[in-house]
Amino acid sequence: MFDCLDLLAYRQARLAYVPCLFALPAYLEQTGEQVSIFAVRNAEGFLEGIMPFVLREGVAYNPPRATFGGWYGNDLPTEVFQDFFGFVVGKLREAGAEKICVKLPPDSSLPAFLPFPALPADLNYHLSLSSDFVGKLHHSEKRRLRKAQQARLVGKHWASPDLDVVHQFIAQARERKGFPMTLSLPAFRAMFEAFPAYYDVFVVRSQAQELVALTVTVRTDAHTLYNFYPADSEAWLAYSPMVLLLEFVANWAKERGFEVFDLGIATENGTRNEGLIRFKKNIGGIETLKYTLWG
Length: 295
Hints:
Elements: E1 2-5, H1 7-12, H2 25-29, E2 35-41, E3 47-56, E4 59-62, E5 72-73, H3 78-94, E6 99-103, E7 122-128, H4 139-150, E8 154-158, H5 163-177, H6 185-194, E9 199-205, E10 211-219, E11 224-227, E12 231-232, H7 241-255, E13 260-265, E14 267-268, E15 271-272, H8 274-282, E16 286-290, E17 292-294
Parallel strand pairs: 4-6, 11-13
Antiparallel strand pairs: 1-2, 2-3, 3-4, 3-5, 6-17, 7-13, 7-16, 8-9, 9-10, 10-11, 10-12, 14-15
């Protein structure tokens, strides 16, 4: 049975799946908008999964606010999902959606029945944590890792981070590279306060405890750690501290049972960032496609 729920009904529903971070009611509430949650119920009335949307100026967006959307839940037979997606599209059109945008997770195949075209696919990279990090490094990155180690730089998990310092450090690094800071300080703090079990900060410090590099990670599900906000200090670029930092995070994640370290995209709407592509490949990143449907 197909259903459409609001956030209150979703919060009260019984689930037959373990929701990832982006499917948690509290996460969806952060949009501050009306979220339409389309669901499949099994014979016992439990939800097998959901697709959440928000409607903005005639465009229905999935996800409302997350790295990726699509279907959050258990695997469904193709014919069931085909009928479900038809139900979703019909309800969105009735609600006034002139366009529908669905951002699929990395490495998702495009079901043949989907009536929507895909925008140029972004290139996503991830590390398989079943492999040794250093063993997969290009020789140039191995040299950079040794240089950082010889400078006695050290990677650490920052268990109780100063979020003002973290946010400022990220904002400065992004400004230097010409990228906007996508979260305000209040929104950044709210993210950690609402989901402390899902967000972590990792740093590289010098022997004098100077902050050299950092990244914010997100536990998107039980198997995947996402590299959300990497940043480095301009004063330490000659030591390429990001390689040392990623080695530390990858080993930390592997010890805790994660299987995938998602490094994120190296393109934007199909436009390639050649330097970022080369770096992610050189540290052993596995390339997959990340599609956005628009129809």
